[in-house]
Design goal:
With about 140 residues, the chain is an alpha+beta fold. The protein is built from 1 helix and 7 strands. About 35% of the residues lie in helices and about 40% in strands.
């Protein structure tokens, strides 16, 4: 009878060991997967921070149109390498349009009316994000 009791005890001990060992391996796998996921997020975050803190680009330049007709807003300038940078926005009346990730610098701007008449023209040094409002001069 003692032999049967010993076999039962060993059997019970083996079952308990298996039950506790199995969740630990799953927990280890879950922890490793969590480390990989967190590592992926930190890489994405560091790339975003690096791009947003790039000192040579402006995140956005927006143009609001408060005139009664649509306008065409053009920008011409050069980046740090001397390459020409040109952007054109068609902004509906009471609308807003934006350009994104444009190099910092001095740009010539032109505001054209639908009849191709120049409404405004000038130069502007873009250093930060800006919203330009075009409205009727009084």
């Amino acid at each position: 009878m003692q032999l049967h009791t010993m076999k039962t005890l060993y059997s019970l001990l083996a079952t308990i060991t298996f039950l506790y060992a199995h969740p630990q391996s799953t927990a280890e796998t879950a922890i490793k997967a969590g480390e990989l996921i967190l590592g992926g997020f930190s890489i994405l975050k560091s790339n975003k921070v690096k791009k947003d803190n790039d000192a040579s680009f402006i995140t956005s330049i927006c143009v609001k149109n408060k005139l009664t007709d649509k306008i065409t807003f053009t920008l011409h300038g050069e980046d740090a390498k001397g390459d020409e940078v040109s952007r054109e926005l068609v902004v509906q009346n009471d609308g807003k349009e934006c350009v994104f990730n444009i190099p910092k610098g001095i740009y010539t701007y032109t505001v054209l009316l639908p009849n191709k008449e120049i409404y405004k023209k000038g130069e502007y040094k873009f250093e930060d994000d800006v919203v330009i409002t075009i409205k009727k001069e009084e």
